[in-house]
Amino acid sequence: MESTLKRTWVEIDLDALTHNYHALCCRMGPNSRFVGVVKADAYGHGAVEVSRVLEELGAGGLAVSNIDEARELRGAGIRLPILQLGLTPADQTTLAIENQIAQTVWSESAAEAFSREAVRLGGVLTVHIKLDTGMSRLGFQCDRPHFEASLEAICRVCGLPGLEAEGIFTHFAVSDETGESSRDYTLRQYDRFRSMVRALEMRGATFRLLHCANSGATVAYPRFAHDLFRPGIITYGIGHQAGELGLLPVMTLKTVVGAIKELLPDTAVSYGRTFRARRPSRVGVLPIGYADGLHRTLSNRWQVWTAQGPAPVVGNICMDMCMVDLTDLPQVGEGDEVEVYGPNSSVNDAAAAAGTISYELTCAVSKRVPRVYLRGGKEVSRELLLRGI
Question: What predicted TM-score, i.e. pTM, was given to this entire model?
Answer without folding.
Answer: 0.95
